[in-house]
């Protein structure tokens, strides 16, 4: 029987010693009330909260879990390297191996730099583009997430206008809107910053329109600006290459993180030859950027990327989930909006502007051992099995019944704060 007394107690204690009880995207403040905040362990496709409830985890740590939590080969590589020397006065030799392997895997890349968080990589990308072009303006898609530094954090508290200077926004996938933004940048365009797909929160996801990706490439070639693809979230989930390789477009820079070491802390910026000199002359570093153990974990992860059918397996499972949920929804008289690639699904109810149905459904799933998210894309990991998907579908059947029996459901009150926050572009 699902229970949450340990979590409740920790949440109360956290209120006293952690600002707001929790911060950032791992705060459950904007999730259904009973969602657990604290977890105890994770293995394969599963996650256990501090009360011992087990979940099939469709958030995968918000992306890093690609091959399963605690994947034995990857963790053995990490642990062996940690025993030998991890954070040292300089990098281990395997940094070069990793740079060789990442540039061999990713078609557009001739060099690699390693850091810790996705934000490190996206921030370096911006600096390198500005250094390369000696121009200032960055053109970005409205609503796209590129990290939590002052130049890109979605909320404006603590951010001053100069942090956000020299940025122009366009609508993702719209050639017209992109062209207008580039026109507005005039002769000051340093970079077009693009997500590999539209994977914004609260709205339907969209795969990249090849015509838009092609136009972004042309506009950069015409103006001398750099094309950046932010593959921090989607990297290695859609392709064994940069995600835009699927549409035949090679960016000049791509940022990576999350899945590249299956949860061990490392991110990367990859670049093409033309940006090498600019990359070599920015100052970028961090105390833990050269740690060897996450690099060893990344090498083991890349081996699995090359040698297993994880990509095909996750696609098959994602499709099984998508079609099974559609079938169950129809049976219960609902229509779902399942958007984005099947391996990175966002699932919302049609006709649910206040997200009331979605919250009730997600809460019911959570209490039946399935961790879904009501407004952020989710992930399929390679450790999931057909049985996990079928168990999820069975739980969804009961969850649909609960929503159907609830009749008319009011909008989610806690989401009202979103419209009051100092927000967003
Ligand atoms: N870019 C994208 C597309 C992301 O999804 C994220 C993280 N969710 C980031 C950048 C920032 O990564 P990090 O949280 O590791 O700094």
From TrEMBL:
One of its GO terms (molecular function) is transaminase activity. The keyword Plastid does not apply. The keyword Cytoplasm does not apply. It comes from the Bacteria. InterPro entries: Aminotrans_3 (IPR005814), Aminotrans_3_PPA_site (IPR049704), PyrdxlP-dep_Trfase (IPR015424), PyrdxlP-dep_Trfase_major (IPR015421), PyrdxlP-dep_Trfase_small (IPR015422). Keywords: Pyridoxal phosphate. Coiled coil: none annotated. Its cofactor is pyridoxal 5'-phosphate. It holds the Pfam family Aminotran_3. Belongs to the class-III pyridoxal-phosphate-dependent aminotransferase family. This is Glutamate-1-semialdehyde 2,1-aminomutase. It comes from Hyphomonas chukchiensis.
């Amino acid at each position: 029987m699902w229970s949450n007394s340990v979590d409740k107690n920790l949440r109360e204690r956290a209120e006293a010693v952690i600002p707001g009880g929790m911060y950032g995207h791992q705060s459950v403040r904007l999730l259904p009330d009973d969602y657990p905040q604290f977890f105890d362990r994770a293995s394969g496709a599963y996650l256990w909260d501090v009360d011992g409830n087990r979940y099939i985890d469709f958030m995968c740590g918000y992306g890093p879990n690609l091959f399963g939590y605690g994947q034995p080969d990857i963790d053995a590589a990490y642990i062996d390297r940690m025993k030998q020397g991890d954070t040292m006065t300089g990098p281990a030799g395997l940094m070069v191996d990793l740079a060789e392997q990442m540039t061999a895997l990713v078609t557009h890349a001739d060099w690699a730099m390693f850091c810790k968080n996705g934000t490190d990589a996206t921030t370096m990308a911006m600096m390198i583009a500005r250094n390369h072009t000696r121009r200032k303006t960055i053109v970005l898609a409205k609503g796209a997430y590129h990290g939590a530094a002052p130049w890109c954090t979605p909320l404006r508290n603590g951010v001053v206008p100069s942090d956000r200077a020299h940025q122009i926004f366009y609508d993702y996938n719209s050639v017209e809107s992109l062209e207008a933004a580039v026109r507005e940048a005039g002769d000051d365009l340093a970079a077009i910053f693009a997500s590999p797909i539209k994977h914004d929160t609260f709205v339907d996801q969209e795969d990249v329109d090849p015509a838009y990706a092609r136009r972004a490439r042309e506009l950069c070639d015409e103006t001398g600006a750099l094309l950046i693809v932010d593959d921090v979230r989607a990297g290695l989930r859609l392709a064994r290459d940069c995600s835009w390789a699927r549409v035949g477009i090679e960016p000049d820079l791509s940022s990576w993180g999350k899945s590249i070491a299956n949860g061990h802390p490392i991110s990367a910026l990859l670049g093409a030859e033309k940006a090498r000199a600019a990359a070599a002359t920015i100052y970028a570093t961090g105390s833990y950027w050269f740690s060897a153990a996450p690099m060893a974990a990344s090498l083991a992860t890349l081996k699995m990327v090359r040698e297993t059918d994880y990509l095909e397996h996750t696609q098959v499972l994602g499709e099984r989930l998508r079609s099974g949920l559609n079938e169950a929804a129809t049976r219960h008289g609902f229509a779902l909006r399942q958007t984005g690639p099947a391996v990175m699904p966002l699932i919302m109810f049609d006709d649910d502007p206040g997200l009331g149905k979605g919250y009730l459904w997600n809460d019911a799933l959570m209490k039946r051992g399935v961790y879904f998210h009501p407004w952020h894309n989710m992930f399929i990991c390679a450790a999931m099995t057909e049985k996990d998907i079928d168990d999820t579908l069975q739980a969804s059947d009961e969850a649909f019944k609960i929503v159907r029996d609830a009749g008319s459901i009011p909008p989610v009150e806690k989401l009202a704060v979103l419209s009051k926050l100092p927000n967003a572009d």
